[in-house]
Specification:
Length: 471
């Protein structure tokens, strides 16, 4: 089976250069137009000099864009990185035009406001254009060709986890290459590329301009073409383990694939962000004070409504306290508004369900909009919880999960939170299978936690609350 991606690079780049040259020309003319408001051109030069300056600005800008690698299809930058390169490029063009050329040839000077105006318009317009093409993966930017080495059970995780087009944003799965030792019937609906791996793999990768190779075979010993992989690495082809690939593309750690050496050589599940650790309590306490001041009236109304619905009849408290497992396995009592009947657990501890029939009338509303979680602000003040982190589980469940689920205890490396990555990405769990899926997201959060990640989760949680998309 043959693919012919190679040789198409220049075909993709040519129209991009033409479009961006046109954008820069328009930016140059807009720069002249803006500059005309500051000072009349009549006293400076002829139309020929105006056109010369626009062309010079465009030429310097394009040379700078080429110099900083913005026309390299292998460029794997975020939009922030691309904008930085655009700023550098236009900055270089500004210096060459205004600082060098006009000093050498003063007769070319048009207007002091022309180059700054053209530079600003150029930066803004190019940044917007690059954002659009990166979001839509036009011209091959932000999209790389990926080859999977392996077509057995481990490789099938990629097929199962990344079925939708949205799951493959930024990548093109060229195909799966079976190796000796792969378990039968792993890949069902993807392209299988049958190669004599030791002899043909290197030629295939180079001919088809593969940018990343994912190692996903079931048996690595004596099966991997190590010399070819070494050569790829030297040539700049990215070599990625399946665990790291799944983590990067799906936002979860595949606990069912973890092997000891991966934990040893990765950064593990302990944070290395010491600044964040030292500021953790202050960060959470500050947000808790802000939320409490805003939410205090709603909390008072909620307490009254719970009391009126069944509290005055049964004598049950409007609050609900329950033991949960927190940081380093320490047990604490979580505080919530009571959303269930007083006898909800007369048969023993149970998982919360999405449409739980044990909830009261007001309780269903409280859960949907997360209002029942507000008293946990007091747990935050006490330092038992943070705003963001894995949701704390009950000791009865934790004891069983640690026995059944590998690496489950690692989620206690951080404080539990009112909201978390798993809560945003996965619905209420009611089984061990659901717990494993949520653990994958929890471990991803623990590995990648940062203040910016926490803020992202908080913002998305606000969206969930406002639009009633309660998990």
């Amino acid at each position: 089976m043959a693919y012919t991606y190679a040789g198409h690079t220049h075909q993709k780049i040519k129209p991009l250069i033409v479009i961006e040259t046109t954008i820069l020309c328009i930016a140059g003319y807009l720069g002249l137009y803006i500059a005309s408001f500051a000072d009349s051109f009549d006293d400076f030069s002829t139309l020929q000099v105006h056109l010369s300056n626009v062309l010079i600005f465009v030429a310097f800008s394009q040379l700078s864009l080429l110099a900083v690698g913005l026309y390299e299809l292998r460029l794997r930058e975020s939009i922030r990185g691309v904008v930085r390169r655009i700023l550098v490029s236009i900055g270089i063009a500004y210096f060459l035009h205004d600082g060098v050329l006009l000093n050498l040839f003063p007769s070319l000077e048009v207007n002091n406001y022309f180059i700054p105006s053209a530079a600003v318009v150029g930066i803004v317009s190019l940044s917007i254009f690059r954002f659009v093409i990166m979001e839509n993966e036009w011209f091959g930017f932000s999209r790389k060709d990926v080859l999977i080495i392996g077509a057995g059970e481990r490789a099938s995780i990629i097929e199962k986890r990344m079925r939708r087009k949205a799951d493959r944003r930024g990548i093109n799965l060229v195909g799966f290459v079976p190796l000796v030792g792969d378990k039968f019937n792993g890949i069902q609906n993807e392209t299988i590329i049958n190669l004599e791996v030791q002899e043909e793999l290197e030629k295939f990768v180079l001919e088809n301009d593969i940018q990343e190779i994912v190692i996903a075979c079931d048996e690595r010993r004596d099966a991997l073409p190590l010399q070819a992989l070494f050569n790829f690495k030297i040539r700049g082809v990215e070599i990625t383990d399946i665990l790291d690939f799944i983590e990067r593309e799906t936002g979860q750690v595949a606990v069912n694939l973890i092997y000891p050496s991966w934990v040893i050589y990765s950064n593990g599940f302990r944070t290395t962000n010491h600044l964040r650790e030292s500021l953790d309590y202050l960060f959470n306490a500050f947000i808790a004070v802000f939320v409490f001041v805003f939410a205090c009236p709603f909390m008072l109304i909620t307490a009254i409504l719970i009391y009126l619905e069944d509290g005055r009849k049964t004598g049950a408290s409007v609050f609900y306290k329950q033991e949960r497992v927190g940081l380093d396995g320490r047990v604490f009592k979580i505080i919530k508004f009571r959303s269930m009947r007083p006898d909800a657990e007369k048969g023993g501890a149970q998982f919360a369900q999405k449409n739980d029939d044990r909830t009261t009338k007001i309780g269903g509303f409280l859960r949907k909009y997360r209002i029942d979680e507000l008293p946990q602000l007091f747990n935050v003040f006490k330092g038992e919880m943070g705003f963001v982190g894995p949701r704390p589980e009950r000791p009865q469940f934790v004891t069983e999960f640690i026995k059944q689920i590998p690496y489950y205890n690692q989620r206690h490396n951080v404080k539990p939170g009112l909201t978390g990555w798993a809560q945003l990405k996965y619905p209420y769990g009611s089984s061990s299978e659901d717990t494993i899926e949520k653990l994958k997201f929890d471990l991803y959060y623990i590995k990648h936690r940062s203040i910016l990640f926490d803020l992202l989760i908080l913002l998305r949680t606000v969206e969930v609350i406002l639009f009633g998309k309660g998990r």
